[in-house]
Amino acid sequence: QVQLVESGGGLVQAGGSLRLSCAASGRTFLFNTMGWFRQAPGKEREFVAACSWRGTTREYADSVKGRFTISRDNAKNTVYLQMSSLKPEDTAVYYCTLDRSGGPGRNADEYDYWGQGTQVTVSS
User: Fold this and answer.
1) Is the alpha carbon torsion for 85, 42, 121, 10 positive or negative?
2) 70-95 burial, b for 16+ CB within 10 Å, e for fewer?
3) pLDDT-derived band of residue 30, with 50, 70 and 90 as boundaries?
4) H or E element at residue 20
5) How far is the first Cα of the chain from the last one, in angstroms, to the nearest whole number?
6) Which pLDDT belongs to residue 18?
């Protein structure tokens, strides 16, 4: 089994920055893909970003491209999401996810493990 634990969420003003972290433990699988999704109240869970094992392929939702950066440290089994120029519409619970194999996908069904989520609130 894989455990994913997110941290770094909180309350920030519009235009501010936050960095989310997600530490994986257990059987994390070599060459996995790790990513982030988010879910706002009353909305479906949506793709945010994903990163391949070596970091050579990174995918972003159009809504965050240019503002968010995903990165990972495989020695620490950790993936990060640096969020800048935050907007009120970025307010959501952010979930870390892991795909045992395959490239960075945008479909939640492709991912095998999920964290509990961390709340990000952006005030206007």
Assistant:
1) negative
2) bebebeebbbbbebeebeeebbbbbb
3) confident
4) strand 18-26
5) 40
6) 98
Please write the tens of the pLDDT for every residue from 42-85.
999 999 999 999 999 999 999 999 999 999 999 999 999 999 99
Report the C-alpha gap between 29 and 19 in whole angstroms.
24
CB within 8 Å of 98: residues ≥ 6 apart: 2, 4, 24, 28, 29, 32, 33, 34, 35, 111, 112, 113
> What is the DSSP-derived secondary structure letter of residue 109?
G
Pair 115, 25: CB distance under 8 Å: no
Distance in angstroms (rounded) separating the CA atoms of residues 55 and 79: 10
Chain-centre distance for alpha carbon 93: 10
From CA 48, how far away is CA 69, in angstroms rounded?
Answer: 10
